[in-house]
Amino acid sequence: MDELTTSSFKTTGSKWLLPVSDFFGFPLDQVNFLACQVFALGASFWFRLYLSPQFSSPVVRHAVATLFGLSFVIFCFGWYAVHISILVMVCYRILVTADIHNIHRYTMIMAVSYLAVCQVSRVFIYNYGILSTDFSGPLMIITQKTTMLAFQVHDGMCKKREDLTADQRLHAVDSKPSLIEYLSYNLNFLSILVGPCSHYKDYIDFIEGRHVQRRLSASNTGQNGYDKVSEPSPMAAVTRKLLICGVCMVLFLTLTKAFPITYNVDSHFVNEAPFLTRLTYAAFSIQAARPKFYFAWTLDAINNAAGYGFKGVDEAGQVSWDLISNISIWGIETATSFKKFIDNWNIQTGVWLKTVCYDRAPRYPTALTFILSALWHGVYPGYYFTFITAIPITLAARAVRKNVRQYFLSSHPVKLVYDVVTWAATQLCICYTVMPFLLLAVEPTMQYYRSMYFHIHIISILTVIVLSQSHKPRGSSSSSNGTKPGPYDPHPQAQPQLQPSNNNVKRK
């Protein structure tokens, strides 16, 4: 029994919780992850209450956050934590020694290349299996942080302010961080395991005690001076998010078993079930897979418990702690366009893609952004099928909105019909697009798309061709060379801080 358990739940991380793993029947790496997140939640309350900026210096807060974070990755991944440390230290070396005009390029090449090498090794080691020691998660977050900071340092120290966009000016960093600041930003226990990535200046404001008060001052509170406004408590936001996490975990444990993704490519099901039945099952199975992501990304509650993530106060006096939130479940479930779905899914990754790619691509920003997203996710072919498929779907959705939507705005009932139809179409397109992301390999992906007769591919491409031809006489040149505004713009507005909750950002 012990041999079977050890081989089934093999991990390079700590085995202290192996009895818990055996008792509940969960893989040991998942038990270790949950244990670290529970500990992080308690540590966050302690960090906010007893290690607050009023009582502790920034250096102490940086050091404690870093030590906790390193402890987590060692506990979860064992010697694989070396890869995380190597990437952080090499990128810091580039930041402090490389030519300021090229630090963003060198950092991007180094971080993405190192991540890709590690992901390739995982594919060969585990051969598409369920990865028991998935150390690539923290590496993916580190890749986001190191590259985004490098671009922002380049903006602040190399470019003229008038050459930057409003969003770039807001987040530009005008001095290179110290080693302890860099380590804390990348390795802090609040986000080391599952993110989210956040802007460097926001994180430094949080450590140094300016995070909440700066946003309260920016709100219409009628107060002058940071010390005159009382800081709101995050307890309501933390409680709400933890309840969501609990519900999502229950749904994942029940729905995922009831609607396994692999059944979409079961030979008997594909050959015997009618097309509409297969289409319906695909939609339900993708829906059943979402709670896992909802659970992981709603754990930004840990950041809130530490006092990080305060967004501001709206006109109605409602306090928001969604500055670095990674997901809007309501926005996802009610999305009436492909872009709206993307805007609310893995929000902070969208911020990163916008910061380092979309806003800076001289041509074809949409295609380049999706390609970078695929590279960042890993080397499984399913990822590339997903993001390449997303390109024509995104362009088609944009073309429909541009050419068709105005005919359905004459009255509320007509627009309601349009919204219902576009919601259903969006959900079906998302299901079709992300299926390879979960199937991973080429053979099941092609089997699924053949069973679906490639209908979304065909419809999207024909829609783009037809509507672009009908729109061509107007002489619009913005889409011919791929310049902005493009269809993939996760959070196009400057934020007061990708993407936090983006509404304040959009008002900016």
Quick rundown:
With 508 residues, the protein is an all-alpha fold.
How would you describe this structure to a colleague?
- With 508 residues, the chain is an all-alpha fold.
- The protein contains 24 helices and 2 strands.
- The protein is globular and about 65 Å long.
Draw up the topology in text.
Elements: H1 2-8, H2 18-24, H3 28-50, H4 58-77, H5 81-97, H6 103-126, H7 136-158, H8 166-171, H9 179-187, H10 200-208, H11 211-218, H12 235-258, H13 267-272, H14 275-297, H15 301-305, E1 312-313, E2 319-320, H16 329-333, H17 338-344, H18 347-358, H19 365-377, H20 381-403, H21 412-439, H22 442-451, H23 455-471, H24 503-507
Antiparallel strand pairs: 1-2
Helix pairs in contact: 3-4, 4-9, 5-6, 5-7, 6-7, 7-18, 12-14, 14-21, 18-19, 19-20, 20-21, 20-23, 21-22
**Structural class of the secondary elements?**
mainly alpha
* Main sheet attributes: strand count, strand direction, barrel closure: 2 strands, antiparallel
Q: Based on CA inertia axes, which overall geometry fits?
A: globular
Unreliable spans are 1-9, 221-228, 473-508
Binned strand content: under 5%
Number of helical elements: 24
Spatial strand arrangement across the major sheet: 1-2
Number of strands: 2
Helix content: 55-70%
Radius of gyration: 23 Å
- Helix-strand sequence: HHHHHHHHHHHHHHHEEHHHHHHHHH
How far apart the termini lie comes to 60 Å
- Let me know the average pLDDT: 85
